[in-house]
Amino acid sequence: MKYWKDGFHQKSIEGSVPITDEYWEELLQGQMTGKRIISNSEGYPILADQREPTPEEQRLKEIATLKKYLSDTDYIYPKCLELGLDVDIEYADVVSQRKSARTRIQELEE
User: Fold this and answer.
1) What is the pTM of this model?
2) With contact defined as beta carbons under 8 Å apart, do 33 and 25 qualify?
3) Which of the four, 6, 45, 49, 61, has the lowest number of CB atoms within 10 Å?
4) What percent of the chain has pLDDT over 70?
């Protein structure tokens, strides 16, 4: 026996609903095929189709992806300083992409 309240629980918590182990496995199988698990009006978990992200969710995801790229490529500047290399020559494509990423982040954050 499992319990559901905005996620699965091994023990009953306030407001949770009991589900069988078989139904729990069915829900997990559905999730693995691209469905999502949501609560119905009675609080029981059901499978639903994935919804399209809202424009705001898409914007925030793009900002996060761009910021991760900037973070992941931050190392090139100290590396070039340490080795006495010109970052604009050695990593010209990365420098260009970083500039584009910063510009795009500014656009998205306006």
Assistant:
1) 0.57
2) no
3) 49
4) 100
